[in-house]
UniProtKB/TrEMBL annotation:
Organism domain of life: Eukaryota
A matching Pfam family: DUF4371
UniProt xrefs under InterPro entries: DUF4371, RNaseH-like_sf
Protein name, per record: Zinc finger MYM-type protein 5-like
Chain ranges of the DUF4371 domain: 230-430
């Protein structure tokens, strides 16, 4: 019996020892550490009498002690930002209460540059807390996880867990109070770091802790600190105000720098000059970037003050150097590319276009364009993502660069549905070209040769095959050379003509329509200029040229030829313009080419004296892209057997192994359904996808929606990449 009693007393003593240890475990978090720094506003250790009559006196005494211990900080008005731009990332967040800290008259929602806000999980806090961290903690308040249900809290070894019930305190009169000081750490699976995790006796522990003097002292400090923050009566208020003003100054400065960089980059203007100087009184050319900032400083007081501080050598870092310019450009370009990639990933399917050219330093530069269909608007978008210097232009090397660039941006090559580039052998070669290598990786990356390059080659070969055509354009060039060889002759036609004469170009057929147009619409004025030139010159060779040109221009054959070629080149140029448009698609390109072939045949049979006005209107720039029949009538004219066969063929093309973009039979059924419901104003695929998006029909016609998107993104030309 004695042994049993002794054992019982021993267990009771051990339990009392555990309870006593747990009652003070929460103070490991709430007690202030003794470590102090010049930047932390550590509160002094003050013993307080918690009697009701002495509470106000204790608070006043506490404030006086804090005022004595905090030293006045140096003036930070002109100091550089705390986070160096070259080495650290600047974190920006909006603090709606900063006006209470700095000045009640300051603008609301100041932009504050500081260390990140503290984690919501106390288990992740690193002690001792800095002054700014304690400031953030008090200002924003404890973040309790009240939205978590009791059953979602982690269990301990005894299958017990924390409950939201403990966030509320019951008073003796049955009223309830919220324990705003109570935390739960998911990381440590306990209420606070190194805190209490005895869930069975937690209610008793919390009641004992709330009645302790240490807890009440800490709560008084907390309430007082929060009150001083809200009233802007902290003892370091002036220093906080200077810090806030300095932060606001640097934020506004970088905002101006970014706007200037954006302006120069969007207008393709250079940044640096030969002799850069940041002195306001220096009249030399310091480059567009510095000079534009100097110009703005005349109307911006803060920017002018910044330059003055630089000239007076009061700023160690002014952030106007070329290194900062380059770093800002890289950050801005990185952000732009990130936004483009996000849009591409949202729409899934994309196409890429390439073009290579040498820069002034003889380095081969490859431009990459991404083309995709915006699923929110139905518009086709093309975005430039950068220049890449290439050491070799072989098909293998260019393919590796493309694949690496797509992978580095997080794009899957299997989502590519189109590739476009010029007709060079290294690009379109059957065995080792870029086209073939990409198709071996992704057979659904459909290739379409650049329409504008092919169109130009056809026209060049067509002209070279006709001696009459070659003679005509040679004579057009001869008229231009007659006046361009002398500045006096050029001044003569500038005074007489409204449209200047144009030279021919082998690669740009737009120059040919401009050259023919200048002569056709100013035929009489050019004749007068040649006659005036004949009377002024004394050179026999030039006089002979004038006589020969004048004689040829007045022939019936030349007059007929210039009218015919203008009609042809006008439509040729319109087709070239349409194919260079971002919104063009394969259907529009094929329709415009078929319409041109039909017009050529009819123009050849009818003759230029009997032009049909209706055809003239149809081939104008605004209407060349419209098909001759409505889409609904085109679908209705196809038999069900042919329609099903086309759907099966398309499904086979869009299938690789077990993966397929569409279901052939479902596409066939959707097309049958859409034929009866399609409005008459729908004329092409572009209007069709806009109709589907605007009326939220993606769920009804998913296969039609996917098919049209893929068809629209296949590039017709590489004009965007060349530009």
């Amino acid at each position: 019996m004695g042994i049993w009693c002794a054992s019982k007393r021993k267990r009771k003593a051990e339990m009392m020892q555990v309870n006593q240890a747990m009652s003070t475990s929460m103070m490991k978090f709430l007690n202030k550490t003794s470590t102090s720094t010049t930047t932390d506003l550590d509160e002094p250790n003050i013993k307080m009498d918690l009697n009701e009559g002495n509470l106000s006196n204790n608070i006043s005494k506490y404030n006086e002690e804090m005022t004595k211990e905090v030293e006045t900080k140096s003036d930070l008005e002109t100091s550089p930002p705390i986070n160096t731009f070259e080495n650290k990332e600047i974190t920006l967040y909006v603090n709606s209460n900063i006006n209470n800290i700095c000045d009640l008259e300051m603008h609301k929602q100041e932009i504050v540059l500081s260390e990140p806000l503290m984690s919501l999980d106390p288990g992740k806090w690193v002690f001792p807390l800095s002054g700014s961290q304690r400031h953030d903690l008090v200002q924003h308040g404890p973040q309790q996880m009240l939205e978590i249900c009791d059953e979602n809290y982690p269990l301990d070894n005894n299958k017990r867990h924390f409950s939201n019930f403990h966030y509320t305190r019951k008073l003796s009169n049955r009223e309830t109070q919220h324990r705003r000081w109570l935390f739960f750490s998911n990381l440590q699976t306990q209420m606070i770091r190194e805190g209490c995790c005895d869930w069975k006796h937690l209610s008793t522990i919390l009641q004992r802790h709330e009645k302790s003097q240490e807890h009440m002292v800490c709560m008084i400090k907390w309430v007082e600190f929060d009150k001083r923050i809200k009233l802007g009566k902290k003892i370091d208020r002036e220093n906080e105000k200077r810090i806030c003003e300095s932060q606001k100054h640097w934020y506004n400065l970088f905002k101006k720098l970014i706007n200037v960089i954006n302006f120069l980059a969007s207008h393709n203007l250079s940044f640096r000059g030969h002799r850069e100087s940041i002195k306001l009184d220096d009249s030399n050319n310091s480059g567009n970037f510095i000079d534009l900032l100097k110009l703005l400083s005349k109307y911006d007081h803060s920017l002018q003050n910044h330059f003055q501080l630089i000239n007076e050598k009061k700023l160690a870092q002014h952030y106007l150097s070329h290194d900062i310019q380059n770093e800002l450009i890289k950050l801005m370009s990185k952000k732009v590319i990130e936004e483009i990639i996000i849009k591409v990933k949202l729409v899934k399917y994309y196409a890429f276009m390439l073009d290579c050219t040498r820069d002034i330093s003889r380095v081969e530069q490859m431009s990459i364009i991404l083309r995709f269909c915006n699923t929110s608007t139905g518009d086709i978008e093309e975005h430039f993502i950068g220049f890449i210097a290439v050491d070799s232009t072989t098909g293998e090397h260019l393919t590796n660069i493309i694949l690496h660039e797509l992978k580095s941006n997080g794009l899957d090559i299997q989502d590519c549905r189109g590739q476009g580039f010029d007709n060079g052998a290294n690009m379109v070669g059957i065995n080792k070209g870029v086209k073939t290598r990409i198709l071996n990786i992704n057979p659904k990356a459909f290739f379409a040769p650049c329409g504008c390059h092919s169109w130009n080659l056809i026209l060049v070969d067509a002209v070279k095959s006709s001696i009459t055509a070659k003679t005509f354009f040679g004579f057009i060039q001869k008229i231009y050379l007659l006046f361009s060889k002398s500045s006096k002759r050029w001044d003569l036609i500038k005074d007489k003509l409204k449209l200047t004469l144009k030279s021919l170009s082998e690669t740009r057929w737009e120059s040919r329509i401009a050259a023919v147009k200048a002569i056709l619409f100013q035929f009489d004025d050019i004749i007068d200029c040649i006659n005036i030139l004949k009377m002024q010159i004394v050179d026999a060779e030039t006089l002979c040229d004038c006589e020969a040109i004048l004689k040829e221009m007045l022939t019936f054959e030349f007059i007929v030829a210039i009218h015919v070629w203008y009609e042809i080149l006008l439509r040729v140029n319109n087709i070239s313009k349409i194919w260079q448009s971002v919104q063009v698609n394969l259907k529009m390109a094929v329709d415009s080419l078929n319409n041109f072939c039909n017009w050529i045949q009819e123009y050849r049979d009818i003759g230029f004296n009997k032009k049909n006005s209706k055809e003239e209107k149809m081939f104008s720039y605004e209407h060349t892209d419209e098909p001759m029949r409505m889409m609904k009538k085109s679908l209705e004219s196809i038999s069900k057997e042919d329609l099903y066969k086309h759907c099966c063929d398309l499904g086979t093309v869009l299938q690789e192994g077990e993966k397929s973009d569409i279901q052939s039979f479902e596409l066939y059924k959707e097309l049958q359904l859409i034929i009866s419901n399609l409005p008459d104003f729908i004329k092409d695929a572009k209007q069709l996808i806009k109709y589907i998006i605007e009326n939220n029909l993606q769920e009804i016609y998913p296969n039609v929606y996917i098919t049209v998107r893929i068809m629209l993104i296949i590039p017709v030309s590489t004009a965007s990449a060349e530009r």
